[in-house]
Hints:
The structure holds two protein chains of two kinds.
Chain A: E1 10-11, H1 15-45, H2 53-78, E2 80-83, E3 87-92, E4 97-103, E5 107-114, H3 116-121, E6 123-130, E7 138-144, H4 145-161
Antiparallel strand pairs in A: 1-2, 2-3, 3-4, 5-6, 6-7
Helix pairs in contact in A: 1-2
Chain B: E1 7-8, H1 13-24, H2 26-34, H3 43-61, E2 63-67, E3 70-75, E4 80-86, E5 92-96, H4 99-104, E6 106-112, E7 121-127, H5 128-140, E8 158-162, H6 165-173, H7 179-191, H8 193-203, H9 210-237, E9 241-245, E10 248-253, E11 259-264, E12 268-275, H10 277-281, E13 284-291, E14 302-311, H11 312-322, E15 334-335, H12 339-363, H13 371-388, E16 390-394, E17 397-402, E18 407-412, E19 417-424, H14 426-430, E20 433-440, E21 448-455, H15 456-477
Antiparallel strand pairs in B: 1-2, 2-3, 3-4, 5-6, 6-7, 8-9, 9-10, 10-11, 12-13, 12-18, 13-14, 15-16, 16-17, 17-18, 19-20, 20-21
Helix pairs in contact in B: 1-3, 6-9, 7-8, 7-9, 8-9, 12-13
Amino acid sequence: MPVPEIASWSHLDPAVKKLxxxxxxxxxxxxxxxxxxxxxxxxxxxxxxxxxxWLVGLAVGLALLALSFYVAGRKFEFWRFTLGEDDLAxxxxxxxxxxxxxxRARIQHVDVTAGPISRALGLAVVSVFVSGQGGxxxxxxxxxxxxxxxxxxxxLKLSEQAPPVAxxxxxx
Amino acid sequence: xxxxxxxxxxxLTIFLELARVIGxxxxxxxxxxxxxxxxxxxxxxxxxxxxVIAAIARYLSYSYAVHDGxxxxxxxxxxxxxxxxxxxxxxxxxxxxxxxxxxxxxxDLKIETAAGxxxxxxxxxxxxxxxxxxxxxxxxxxxKEVGIEETAPKAKGRxxxxxxxxxxxLTGATENRALAMVGAVFGGSFVFYDQLxxxxxxxxxxxxxxxxxxxxxxxxxxxxxxxxxxxxxxLTYGNFELTLEEGKLRRHYGLVNxxxxxxxxxxxxxVRMSESLFQRMLHFCKLYVETAxxxxxxxxxxxxxxxxxxxxxxxxxxxxxxxxxRPVDTVRWRSVSPKTANIYARRxxxxxxxxxxxxxxxxxxxALWALIPAVMLSALLGWAHYRTTGYDDKPxxxxxxxxxxxxxxxYVPPEKVQSVFVSQSPLQRRYxxxxxxxxxxxxxGGGSASVIxxxxxxxxxxxxxxxxxxxxxxxxxxxxx
Lengths: 172, 481
């Protein structure tokens, strides 16, 4: 069976890059302090070393911060999803790439979540749950709140079209 | 369409919340109570105000609505969450009361779907009347299941498998639990040669000195472990019998602890076969079924052993009984991309190189000579990996197989597939291959099957075709699990 090329991928809202960068800046700042602190402690402990360890810590912290800023942009490029007639496909990952297919009729429930920074930017995360897995099988981060709400409705409406579930019909 | 009307929990929830939050702070409270000078002037007041505000905020932030065939729950103070559960997905509704609930005449309404092991929603707390009313409201959207009472053993079913004494003996004999210890003895003897040979002499004198003694010692451990494995297998799996009656698989086994369990066939998601190196040489295998949990029976599902040891010739028959109508015996193993050998060899060489590099720190640079056999061994392993990795995709059966030393084979009916993943690591991208992974509703890790290192095109086709069958089957039958 030939694979139909998915031509109409939907992207996340570009504001999600801002969200990821703010989050990266916050955690990056914490790491920066930790690295510089660790470097300073090393400087104290090993006197007379030719290297200034706190500078090394600063450089590593800044490099990680720059990397996470870059990653936020790339992650946005690669995170795509598409709503098919009866399914959902999500594709993500910069280096380790994954594509997930979920039949909508198999969806058990849908979460729409937004943290404080998300809310300030008007964004929300849609998580899709199916049977068997503990966690969400697919997540679509960083949609505009109204877009997330629309997606939630579409995902669950269609899942309602299937006849009601009969678990192990007649055998339990 | 009308807007959903959100309702709050019972206001008494605030008191339950107070109790819960205080419970979280209990160690801290005990600490400042007993350690003099640790509490400031207003520490109790500050904690008190915080606890009250947290409890009220949680009460105000939690609301639920039943609307258009869905239960919608809003929760979260800092991170807001909005969960939507279709009523038709609800498997079970529990009304629970703990002591505090009872005192206040409240109830905790727990709602479970087939998604995970825990309750998907917990409405704590509602008044008794609210709880009962909501339960009725929710169950109107839930199709009642046809419940057949489980009674004591009825008519004997058809025997699918009964362990023979040879199989019982071999079950233990092919699994020497002391092998790791033997390995440790010989591994340790390179480093602690003197201590070990002295110890051996003390335990079993007259058995020879030095290496001979260590070898004899290792062999004795091996023999003892072997006998113990056999005895334990006989006691555990004695009288193992698998029967099929009225669409249920019933297994019964054990000489000391007798265990009996029943799995309804439709709940079987995957049949898994495993063969250790010894078992492969003797043409035997072990069979497991991976099942989805049942919330009606508070059964978590998971992996169950259905044949402790089975002759390979009989394997297809048993699998066909568990997965009726699947052409198990016509499975023709197809190879994945030959590049998988290269990828596997590189990965194993990396592991060997790290090990050798590490030991060269201890033994000196001469240890690096071991890299030459390591390269050869890696290449051999890569080739063996390519030879064993296989899959077959029939219209109503996906079969996958992998494992160089011990081998795992999975049989998955496509209609049991819940989601399909295609993934590619950076190394795989260089070789233009991808991995296809399917998840079923079986709660255990064994409920997933993968075909690794397929050429990109084939992987895309396989994933798409499995996904289509999964989506079509649920549309046609309405059976989600």
